[in-house]
Amino acid sequence: MQTADGLTALTNSRLMVISRGLGSKHLLPVADALLEGGVRVLEITMNTDGAPRLIERLVQHAGERMFVGAGTVTNVAEARTALAAGAQFLVTPNTDVAVIELANKAAVPIFPGAYTPTEIVVAWQSGATAVKIFPTGSRTLEIIRELQGPLGHIPMMALGGIDVTNVSKFIRLGCYAVGVGSSVLDQQAIANGDYQQITKRAAELVRAIDLSKRDENDLLN
Prior knowledge:
The protein has 221 residues and is of the alpha/beta class.
C-alpha cells in the first residue's frame, strides 16, 4: 500500500491495531484475520523479537492491502532499521525531534508520543503527522478532552483501554485515530489458532467506529 493510500486508510478507518510480541508463527494468519475484519493499519512494535524481519515479511505478504508500520521506535538507529525493513510509518513512545526529522526526510508518516502540552506542540511543529497522547492509562478520554481545549488544532491519537464498548467516545471527541492491542488481538485465541475470533473482534470494532463516524457527521451537518 502506497503511503498516500495508507494515510487515507488510516484517516478513513481511524483505527490502528498494535501487535506487540506476536511471533512469526502467528503474524501472517493474524494479519489475514484482521484484513478480513476490516482492519487496514497494523503496527509491529520494535521491542518484539525479530521485529525488522517480521515487518519485512508482513510488507511482502500484505503490503498491497495493509499499511504496515513500526512502533516503539525509541531512537534514530531503530527508525533507520525499521525503514530499511520496509516500515511504511513510524510510531514512537516519546518526542524525539531527530526521529521526526528522519521520518519527514524519508517521506514516511510519523506519530510521536507526547504527554505534556509542550511535548505535543514540539512534536507537531517538528513535523508529526499526528501526535500520540502517551501515556494515559485509564484516563485517556479525560486527558485528550482537556488537551483539545487549547490544542484542538493538533490531530491527536488515543490509545490505552480502548475497546468496542467505548471507542465511540473517542471518535465523537474527534480523535485522529485510536490504537488498540489486546482488545482485538486476544492472546488466548491466537495461541489456540482461533483466528476467526480475531476477525470477529476486529469487525465489531470497525463497525462501532463506522457508526460513530456517522453520528459525528450528523452532528456536523
